[in-house]
Amino acid sequence: MITISHLSKTYVNPDGSTLQVLKDVNCEIKPGEVISIIGPSGTGKSTLLRSMNLLDLPTGGSILVDGEDILQKGYPIHKMRQKVGMVFQNFNLFEHMTVLENVMYAPYVLRKEPKEQVREESMALLRKVELAEKADVYPSSLSGGQKQRVAIARALAMKPEVILFDEPTSALDPTMVGEVLSVIRHLAKEGMTMIIVTHEMKFAYDVSTRIFFMNEGIIYEEGTPKQIFDHPRRSATKAFVQRIRKAVFEVGSRDFDFLDMDSQIRQFCNKYNIGDKADKALRLCRLMIRDILGGAHFPLTVRITYSELSDQTAMDFMVENLETSPLASASPESLDELRSLCREIIEEPTSRGFRVKLLL
Known about the structure:
alpha/beta, six-stranded mixed sheet, 12 helices, 15 strands, 35% helix
């Protein structure tokens, strides 16, 4: 469906200096594939996507869509845009139009399709993204997740062969990410060809047929989700996919600002879309520090970690200069409550003391 060869993109800065974002990108996308593009910020992921839709004009190379080079002079861009839809991270809805009018606009105005036919098909698309009841409201009254679902319906209205998603959840409140990813998963099951720039690692693992890991302006490594995430060949890929998010608190005494720690733990959970784990993490902190450790073991290191790949959240409590597990002297009531809050409890000695790791 799409063949990209030796694609490059160089920006010229106002001072005359240049910045090469894409260096030599080569890939093929076949019908029905779901490609997730991952990688560090600034490595050209969004630029590649925008180049495929000619929102950014590449400096060199070729992009073949159904065998036609869309970079050739005189190629009708509107023809390509009917084949390649795009969903942006900031929605880009028409605020002066209702939800239904947003979805109807392109097929009615650009493709000149009969209005009633367009209306029926647009309503069907709104039902697909579960927003039919919002057909007559304006975008200003929608949540971010609802706006993005409207944007997906609008892209589908042109009956594209492929849809490009440019970080479709990055502008959303963490509580709204799931509803958008659910719609994309449904499209994948229906066989829609999609190319998705995303930072949602677990989603990329679950939904993709192939993963492109971009680094230094090229597709640094590509393969199946299992290959890229479980058995990466290159060290830069391995370092990226195995990243673990964490927040660490060094508690020196009972005068530590525990309220601030509580606030930071909640912010951490919201930032990485695990807000549903926040209350449990805070209960574990209070239980471990107040009841089990009794406020008597300092210095104490408290750490919350989240692995995007395994979707695993853990709380660590490392007590220095302690040779045995602090759980050994805990009351039966405290241990029962601890077990009720955790999937697993790991007790292990360290070079500095003893660690209790709690898997949420």
